[in-house]
Amino acid sequence: MTCNRGSALLRRSRFQDPPAVTAKGIKVVLMTTTTLKPVAATSTDADVKIRIRDLTKVFQTKNGPFVALDPMNLDIPKGCFFMIVGPSGCGKTTLLRILAGLEEHTSGTLEITAPAAGRPSNSMVFQGDSLFPWMTVWENAAYGLTMRGKPKGEIKDVVGHYLARTGLSKFHASYPHQLSGGMRQRVSIARAFANDPDILLMDEPFSALDEQNKVLLQEELLRIWEETRKTVMFITHSVDEAVTLGDRIMIMTAHPGRSKMIVDVPFERPRKVLELRAQPEYGELVYNIWGHLRDEVQRARAQDEGRAS
């Protein structure tokens, strides 16, 4: 691939300052200074949207430093539907929050290609309810555009489009408490896409839903995503969901979290969830991924039992 020397990145770097401390045999340098500024692209890969180099996260606890993320290196291409699976407590959500700017990493570098002018860098869909209870479905879906001062005509067109795509047009005047859990997550998805972010971050958005609603929302998400092919980072505990939705899947280790392996998903798009899952190749890939993940889940369980004893 050719080098895109003219593109810009948002780089968050952590610079060494205080002395190093040791946590569980791992040398960790605590950092205090953060910069976020456009810089010239140094990558020889013009299609990389997110680049992570030697990124760590250490939390200070009453029992000393807790290493949530070990040095991590990762490239996520533009337009990739990138899935992360791993055992509980391996740092999946921590990594997502760092990408969203809700957490600071301790060391290493995070580079994100700068969005087009006027477009937000990211939108996040959370695991639980994140709607404003005093706002209607329409007002919730329009929130990002309204806060950005977009013209009323544009808001009407965009929000109307995504409410229609998520089957919520008839419920535009309803409030969150009048909706089912699946419908509330549809509003969250409509709000995220309506805001037109450069990157979509999703933290187990379907985990609380029953299997029927989960399949329906997976199909709706794939259908909407096909329109824009945004870069997505999606966390899940479900290997089935990872293979159904993703282009690439990162399997994370038990604590401290690091990348164990990255698996390319070979299935063509567009995808139909149930038709895909009927293919023998689908079952084989799920089985193989679970084989690699199972060891980490068992190791995480042993860690939890050791801390409890």
How many beta strands in the DSSP annotation? Answer: 11
Largest sheet: spatial strand order: 7-8-9-5-10-11
| Main β-sheet description | 6 strands, mixed
Overall shape: it is globular
Mean of residue pLDDT?
85
What fraction of residues sit in β-strands?
A: 25-35%
SSE order: EEEEEHEEHHHHEHEHEEHH
Q: Into which percent range does the helicity of residues fall?
A: 25-40%
Total of DSSP H or I helical runs spanning 4+ residues: 9
- Low-pLDDT residue spans: 1-7, 15-44
What does this structure look like?
The chain has 309 residues and is an alpha/beta fold. 34% of the residues lie in helices and 31% in strands. It has 9 helices and 11 strands. The strands form 2 sheets. Strands 7-8-9-5-10-11 form a 6-stranded mixed sheet, with helices on both faces. It has a 5-stranded antiparallel sheet with strand order 2-1-6-3-4, covered by helices on one side. A hairpin with a 2-residue loop joins strand 3 (48-61) and strand 4 (64-77). Helix 4 (152-165) packs across helix 5 and helix 5 runs parallel beside helix 6.
